[in-house]
Amino acid sequence: MSMALSPEQRQFKEATARFFSEVSPPAAVRAFMSGETGHDGPVWRRLAQELGLTGIHIPESLGGAGFGSVELGIACEAMGRTLYTGPFLSSSIMAGCAILRLGNDDAKARYLPGIASGEMVGALLLDSLESESAWGSGLKADEMQRLHGDIPIALGTQEATVVFALASSREGLALYRVLDATSKLAIDTRSALDPTRRIYRVQLDATPAERIGLCDRKAVNEFFNDLCIALAHEQIGGASALFDSTVEYTKVRFQFGRPIGSFQALKHRCADLLLELELAKSATYEAASILSRGEDGSEMASMAKAMASDVYMSVARAAIQLRGGIGFTWEDDTHLWFKRAKSSEMLFGSPNYHRERMMKCVEDAA
Amino acid sequence: MTPEAIRQEVLAFLETQFDPGLSLIEWRNRLVEGGWAAPHWPEAWFGRGFSVEQTRVVSEVFAEKQAVLAASIGPRGLAAETILAHGTDDQKARYLRPILTGEHAWCQLFSEPGSGSDLAGLSTKAERDGDHWMINGQKVWNTSAHHADFGILLARTDFDVPKHQGLSYFLIDMRQPGVEVRPLKQMNGHASFNEVFMTDARVPVIDLLGGEGQGWAVAATTLSYERQGFRRRHGQTAGQKGEGRLYEEYRQEVAIANEPYTWYPQREGRPDLVLKRARETGAIQDPVIRQEIAKLHALTKANELARVRADADRRSGSNEVIPAGSIGKLAASVIARQSAHVHTLISGANAMLSGEDSPEAGVVAETLISVPAISIAGGTDEIQKNIIAERVLGMPKDVRTDTGPFREIKRNG
């Protein structure tokens, strides 16, 4: 069962929260939205060097900080609160966890120190961002280890210095490193609903690659759990920050001669959201805690992802509704969280998908 | 005293004094004499001034030896703690001991038909008449009032001051002509509560608890123990299987005390039956129902985790987590409703049946018509949400229209 954070973990939580509120205020998020590059180099270097976040979950022997899923979750939550736009999810989580779970020892030694130090920025091509069971159906490796496929939605590819891919081969699903990408990897920027998260289309046509790991089903499942738990933390971070700002708004906005937060209609909606948020947090923290104990995390990972997705959208809808007209304007920042909530809801599996995945675990256990 | 010293002393006491051949009241008199009836109470009043942990040691030894504890279940426990906190020496001397021995049963006379969520707006009237108070009014939702000897009563002694200031707290004899108790039948067919009508009922002035006009402060003590579910299950674990007069009388006492609560598991929605029913009926194959079961499972599990997290947080002293109690009651309502919804989906048209004709010999049907109670009893969800919004989230208080003299406040009837 989930326990309270240790004093060290609490300190770490405060430090990360402080750091991201400093480096990722709404102005920085908006600069990213209108900017050309995918990430802010100086901030990324501070994140890597001052806080060691880029390798927080990577073993010390491989250049990381050697912490577990709880600390990783704390970092993701802090980034989610401020809508941090750097390539953490695509590099440290997607590429980093893929190599940790699915890469061979040589690949770990070659790539993880770079990802941990932040000097290497990784990205991972997945042919489905909806379901781990579909992986390998759209991206295939031929006998000469060349990759073929069309990835309609890819994250972090443009920003990456090294691109990895999960593709099916004759021996089954395998992890690849895409070799010298320039000529055979077509990357197009797509129009994203959530401007805080860039989306690319990547087409591979006999793109040369090197196989760096063969995947068994269990490891694939664990990797998918990593993605879901990390994203769930990001989601509850965003939901918490947006909920806090919304409650504060109801205290200072006056209509009918009184703060609108004195009306029961708003109080009840906020109390309902607090309940939903606390339950989602409890599930999400437990999911990280289970991983750090080495237990099978599929049920809790899916529960966390489903609940965090739902509550982020609930909070985002209320955040706009409770602000009234101002909440619907471009100038107000609320829509930035709303859009992040919407894109996160569908990333790595919808709430319905995860409820079904969780149900299978419940049936197996009973 | 150390836990081991307590243990040895209790063991020695039980060794010489406990005898299943005694009557329940005889045994509990020995308990009181020996000082083991209420170890957490002060030494001056039947206790030993024990801490919660020390008291737990006593209970553990009693449970181990299958020894019956002092009477504590039901409203009598609320009465005892309130009298202990606010009573005169005379009141403590007259009332505490028969509560501990089980000779006197008590009921709680707070809510009224015109005063539900707004308890301080109650209008039962208490007027001074020589050396008595004359009581007129009606109470409702009174568990066990039909076999209570006494009641803890909240009534209005002053209609010309703001509502909280005009209340007084009385200890009323239920066995008198001016008090009439009628069972109150609920929508699920059970009658777990009563209505109590008081017509010129009399309370001696020596049975005003706390000062005149102090009723709200005294009631706060009762309500805080009620919220803690004070010793609700305490004393019901021991002696369920023992033989002898003592155990028989004890089992009868427990059965009477528990009788109003037989449907309480159903008002929580019976999520424990969901998976079994879904399998038996084949509804588990239905993808839409699976989604609803999964939602229920997630709510139930996350709620348990929230409680564990809040407890761990409190123990660590960090107090970053929202206290589980404040959202736990709302969570229970959400879970119960979702569970009833799932049971309905699983049952299909059989949800139209009840009693022996229906799934699980009526348990599912009883669940469907008992769940509405969970979001009302012990404080409605709406009041709970106001409390969360104002105390946890710091949202501004609503505009009040009931701050003037009680007589001028608009009210029912």
Shape of chain B: globular
Largest sheet of chain A: 7 strands, mixed
SS element count, helices of chain B? 13
Count of DSSP strands of chain A: 9
- What portion of residues of chain B belong to β-strands? 5-15%
Structural category of chain B is: alpha+beta
Record field, number of beta strands of chain B: 8
Instruction: Determine the number of helices of chain A (DSSP H or I, runs of at least 4 residues).
Output: 11
First CA to last CA of chain A: what distance? 19 Å
Helix content class of chain B: 40-55%
- Mean pLDDT across every amino acid position of chain B: 93
Using the alpha-carbon principal axes, give the shape of chain A.
globular
Strand content of chain A: 15-25%
For the largest beta sheet of chain B, what order do the strands appear in spatially? Answer: 1-4-5-8
Distance between the termini of chain B: 57 Å
Poorly predicted spans of chain B? 230-236
Mean pLDDT level of chain A: 94
Please describe the structure with a list of short key phrases separated by commas or semicolons.
heterodimer, A: 366 residues, alpha+beta, two-stranded antiparallel ribbon, 11 helices, B: 413 residues, four-stranded mixed sheet, four-stranded antiparallel sheet, 13 helices, 8 strands, 42% helix, globular
What does this structure look like?
The complex is a heterodimer of chains A (about 375) and B (about 425). By secondary structure, chain A is α+β, with helices and mostly antiparallel strands. Chain A is built from eleven helices and nine strands. The model of chain A has no long low-confidence stretch (mean pLDDT about 95). Chain B has about 425 residues and is α+β, with helices and mostly antiparallel strands. Chain B is built from 13 helices and eight strands. In chain B, the strands form two sheets. A four-stranded mixed beta sheet of chain B has the order 1-4-5-8. The chains are: A alpha+beta (about 375), B alpha+beta (about 425). At the A-B interface, helix 7, strand 9, helix 8, helix 9 and helix 11 of A face helix 10, helix 11 and helix 13 of B.
